[in-house]
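Chain A, query sequence.
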Amino acid sequence: MDFRLTDIPNKTDLPTTIASLSALYALTGLVGGESYKATDTKHVHEYLGGGESTPANWLDHSAKGTGGTWNTKSWDAYGDSITAQAYWITPVVSNLGLSLTNLGVGGSQAGGSDTKAMWKDANIATISATSDLITVMAGTNDWANNRPLGGITSVDTEDYCGGLNVIITKLHTQNSTGRVVFFTPPYGEYIDYASRAGSWANGYENDLGLSTFDYGEAMINVCRSRGIPCVDMGNAGINGMNKAIYIKNDGAYLHPNSAGGDRLAEVVNGFLLSISPLI
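Chain A, predicted structure.
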């Protein structure tokens, strides 16, 4: 996409112009990556009367693979099979140039007593103490197993919010210098919901009447209360109406296919380009 700037409040004031452009990108959903061209910087500078050279302090994310400040930074991706299968992770690595360690484990839950439970010390210990970026995607299996949400401040690892809170605390002990970012679970739906434990009324609401989006909302609230960035993967626009396009049918609609991975990656890329590593 390529457009000319109009209605800039003060073309002699570069910071104001850049702020206006940033707001415009935000309003139109253009948040980086391949969403706009390098020539946009040329148009800004031309409008300021400075010819075709790019301002020295202009941050350009237009070149795919450079990743801005994330290029070559280390990334530990902690999660379940949606992370392990990497359909959404591969495009992020390609776009941002991150050095990935995939720590996704199929069947893992934020809460519970299973050996795969993500709050447990042995699993937290797989995350590097020096990684620049630690991401956590959790909730699909908690939803599938009818795990209660619990309260926002809970530390009871038998419920979802309690598991998340314990994970957050342990991550900050494990790695105090890396960026910690949580991702909500994407849309999920069971085909054979009648055979699930409990009484599922449909394929997308579990025995507690909760959808994956409800677990995502709980995660958002926990992270907000703890001051932790949380990316709402519901913004990828994957839902019950288009699930056959973006989610593999492998007996259930849980795992994104390549097209779904690209949609999720767009949300992740956009967020990561809005922040920088802590070190």
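Residues 1-65 have pLDDT under 50 and may be disordered. DSSP finds ten helices and eight strands in the chain.
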